Automatic annotation (TrEMBL):
InterPro entries referenced in this protein's UniProt entry, alphabetically: MetI-like, MetI-like_sf
Natural source organism: Aminobacter aganoensis
Domain ABC transmembrane type-1: 56-263, 360-554
Record-given protein name: Iron(III) transport system permease protein
Any one biological process term the GO annotation gives: transmembrane transport
Highest taxon in the source lineage: Bacteria
Membrane topology: Multi-pass membrane protein
Parts of the chain that traverse the membrane: 7-28, 56-82, 94-114, 137-165, 186-211, 245-263, 293-321, 359-381, 393-418, 479-500, 506-528, 535-554
Length: 567
């Protein structure tokens, strides 16, 4: 069988096993006798208020609130950077993208270090320790979770909206100015209609991110019994009520996918706005006048409060004996201290803790393995889709490979438990194994890998490969001798971004974590849940450093690959 026929068949089988099979299995698991009882318990029983309706309400409130907050913050920063003469727009743009590098649980831990009150006992945060009364609504629950998630996801909205604003040609704005239109008329009549699809897309993405987030609601909401669908799903699986957990996972998928689909439909209905005509490549910048520096200051403060302040607080907390004295009485015990002393109930510092060392090694091994696995698979899928464009094969592969983007991480993990949590014929159960983590993470990040593969292939002329094919070179020969060498920098940049997602993602691994497969994000969450905040903050800083270094390397590689961006 020729490679041109064999490769697509292999890819269909691989994508089917990675994406379709877990989803089919979790659906079938809820159609058994126990599964049907779970549907009834979740949706139509005396327990359904706590199992479904109240978590659903909290989840939708969070999603809508986060989407609105991200649109306001991200849109404001995008407007400043793209359409005004604000000082240092490139620097400001870079600062606006940094919060998404930071794990959401980092901001949640930093919030707790400042605002934790005495309601639950144990150590309190900085403000209450220094005599300020922190009300429960500010320390725990919906409001702090909302603030933390907005601070995490607004950079995603900034990226989407700024790209749309960059397409607003100067000729449109200047024509309106010549006609005597005021700034308000230009904004509402030209700019806002043009960027409306981007606003809808940003709202959909941030909504989906918020409803699927586990870390922030778990750290700030569970202590006061504020449940979301993601935390309720975790609780069901954790306590052995797997059928109910699978039902909630399917419902969470439906909620998240529905809003993403609605956003896509709204965007699709506005395709008549065409601004890139080839006649005008400039972007019109409006003078801010006396507001230039004040608005720049506000923007820098926003970025600093959501990026640098959490990092400073977490660093200080990892050295401080108590949160009440964050910047005094520091100790290195939580980093390199020996065990068996009176401090921290006798636990050693994180770099003397064999569990932490194993978790660090496991995290790096997982992230590197998934990064290269997904990029290789993503490139093969992107190549097959591009070379068979318009065919049924390309359509099926494209739609299936992008399906995971509709599925929240924790629900995807539940689907993998449903499929691989028990033996399949002669195959043993994979639960608790490194292989299951690799499979689940690779499948969930497949859309990003395929998109990176498409981006890389877009910079390589198809004529080169076609010439090699005419000389008799097969698929694997062409990939190894032509595509891979030309695409290596772009692939490495994409692999580094996948690496970052794995290192900082808690929602995906929280259900797949076991003592035999520890990872840093789960270890940090466990320490925080048990009240060892200094250890949790120290581990989170290790994660943060890994993410920042990998992201900066990825951007550097992308800039070298796409030199036209700096032209």
């Amino acid at each position: 069988m020729r490679s041109e026929t064999l490769v697509p068949i292999i890819l269909i089988l691989v994508v089917g096993i990675l994406v379709i099979a877990p989803l089919v299995k979790i659906v079938l698991s809820t159609l058994t006798v126990e599964g049907l009882d779970a549907w009834q318990a979740v949706l139509a029983s005396k327990m359904s208020e706590n199992l479904w309706w109240r978590p659903l309400w909290n989840t939708i409130l969070l999603g809508i609130g986060v989407a609105a907050g991200c649109i306001l913050m991200g849109g404001f920063l995008a407007w400043l950077v793209v359409l005004t003469d604000v000082p240092a727009p490139k620097t400001l743009g870079l600062l606006a993208t940094l919060p998404f590098m930071i794990p959401s649980f980092a901001a949640a831990l930093a919030w707790g270090a400042l605002f934790r009150n005495s309601r639950l006992g144990g150590s309190v945060g900085f403000f209450e320790a220094n005599g300020y009364i922190v009300p429960d609504w500010l320390a725990w629950g919906l409001l702090p979770t909302l603030i933390v998630l907005i601070a995490h996801y607004y950079s995603l909205a900034f990226t989407v909206i700024s790209a749309a604003l960059s397409s607003v040609g100067a000729d449109l704005v200047e024509a309106a100015q010549v006609a005597g239109a005021k700034r308000s008329r230009i904004f509402f009549g030209i700019i806002l209609p043009v960027v409306t699809p981007a606003l809808i897309a940003a709202a959909s993405l941030t909504f989906a991110g918020a409803v699927s987030n586990f870390a922030a609601p778990a750290l700030l909401g569970l202590p006061v019994r504020m449940q979301t669908l993601s935390t309720r799903l975790f609780g069901m699986i954790e306590t052995g009520q797997t059928e109910r957990g699978f039902v909630i996972a399917l419902l969470l998928i439906i909620v998240s996918a529905s809003f993403l689909w609605l956003g896509e439909r709204l965007v699709a209905g506005r395709k008549s706005y065409v601004t890139v005509t080839g006649k005008g490549g400039r972007t019109k910048r409006f003078p801010l006048g006396k507001w230039r520096w004040p608005l720049f200051t506000v923007a820098v403060l926003m970025c600093a409060l959501t990026t640098f302040l959490p990092a400073v607080i977490l660093t200080a907390s990892s050295f401080a004996l108590q949160n009440g004295s964050l910047f005094s009485n520091w100790t290195t015990h939580f980093w390199i201290g020996e065990g068996g002393t009176d401090m921290a109930q006798g636990q050693a510092g994180i770099f003397r803790n064999p569990v932490l060392i194993e978790a660090l090694w496991m995290t790096l091994k997982l992230a590197v393995t998934v990064a290269f696995t997904t990029m290789a698979l993503g490139l093969a899928l992107a190549h097959t889709i591009a070379r068979n464009k318009g065919s049924v094969l390309a359509t099926v592969l494209g739609q299936v490979s992008f399906t995971p983007i509709l599925i929240p991480s924790i629900a995807f993990a539940a689907a993998y438990i449903a499929l691989f949590g028990a033996p399949i014929g002669p195959l043993p159960s994979l639960y608790g194994t490194f292989l299951l983590l690799v499979l689940a993470a690779s499948a969930h990040l497949l859309p990003y890998a395929v998109q990176s593969g498409r981006s890389v292939l877009g910079q390589i002329s198809a004529d080169i490969e076609e010439s090699a094919r005419l000389t008799g070179a097969g698929f694997f020969r062409r990939m190894g001798a032509i595509i891979m060498p030309l695409a290596i920098r772009g692939l490495l940049a994409g692999a580094l971004l996948v690496f970052v997602k794995i290192v900082r993602d808690l929602s995906l691994v929280v259900l797949l974590f076991t003592s035999t497969s520890p990872v840093l994000s789960m270890l940090a969450y466990r320490y925080a849940a048990e009240g060892f905040m200094q250890f949790a903050n120290a581990i989170t800083m290790v994660i943060l450093v890994l993410c920042v270094v990998a992201t900066l390397l990825a951007h550097r590689l992308q800039n070298r690959v796409q030199k036209w961006k700096s032209a």
